[in-house]
Amino acid sequence: KNQVEQSPQSLIILEGKNCTLQCNYTVSPFSNLRWYKQDTGRGPVSLTIMTFSENTKSNGRYTATLDADTKQSSLHITASQLSDSASYICVVSAGGFQKLVFGTGTRLLVSP
Amino acid sequence: DADVTQTPRNRITKTGKRIMLECSQTKGHDRMYWYRQDPGLGLRLIYYSFDVKDINKGEISDGYSVSRQAQAKFSLSLESAIPNQTALYFCATSDAAGQGHYQPQHFGDGTRLSIL
Fold first, then answer.
1. CA distances from A96 to A100, B41, B55, B96, B101 (A)
2. DSSP letter string over B105-116?
3. To 5 degrees, how large is the angle CA B45–CA B12–CA B38?
4. What is the pLDDT of residues B38-92, one digit of tens each?
5. Residues of chain B with C-beta less than 8 angstroms from the C-beta of A52
6. Are A59 and A76 in contact (CB under 8 A)?
7. Helices and strands (H, E) in chain B, number of each type
């Protein structure tokens, strides 16, 4: 069964600190892996999309890594800001938008 | 103005009622999607449409129907609402350009639906 598991479920960090969110997947075949940010009361917003051949991708203070061999991805947030407080969702594609498998997300709270 | 607009943002209704959720977009994308989000679960695909004449069932289409009225409009209907359809519903779009399945999806801000 295709699954995407994220850890931790929730995380609290102090403003200015770095953090890393984890995503493990058992999706086959693999097409691409996406990270989305979802603010409370809003829809998800795309952060990065990585294909099989990409092992790192950055979007400002957000850096995603992908290890297709171990089927793991991480999202690293540098110098966190209060506005980073949100849920972060890992999504793996098995070959098309009808085959996206969504994780349940990591809820991040950045505290002043 | 938002690129993907969902109406209403909140709706409370009773079991057995017919409900329509609407989605409109100004991004000019051909592809549109409806998802539901439940606590503790990832988003699940209800229906998707790759152009005006193309409608496809997703993972959890039972109890739902859709209409693609135009490129910019995609509505979701619950024919006879039941309490376990209480959820947060999202509409999304994506561009088909290039290798379309590598394009990001653009989501609306959701409709919170409660069925009593």
1. 7, 20, 15, 11, 5
2. EEE---EEEEE-
3. 30
4. 998 999 999 999 999 999 999 999 999 999 999 999 999 999 999 999 999 999 9
5. none
6. no
7. 0, 11
Q: Which of A98, A77, A100 is nearest to A17 (CA)?
A: A77
Q: Smallest CA–CA separation between B27 and chain A, in Å? A: 15
b/e burial code for range A62-82 (CB count within 10 A of at least 16 → b): bbbbbebeebebbbebeebee
Rg value, chain B, Cα: 14
State how far the Cα of B116 lies from the Cα of B113, in Å rounded to an integer.
10
Nearest-Cα distance to chain A for B113, in Å, is 13
Q: Given CB atoms, is B106 within the 8 Å cutoff of chain A?
A: yes
The span from the CA of A14 to the CA of B23, in Å, is 38
pLDDT for res B66? 98
**Structure-block tokens of residue B101:** 């399945």
Distances (CA, A) of B77 to A15, B6, B65: 43, 13, 5
| pLDDT higher than 90, residue A96 | no
Compute φ and ψ for A18, nearest 5 degrees. Answer: -95, 155
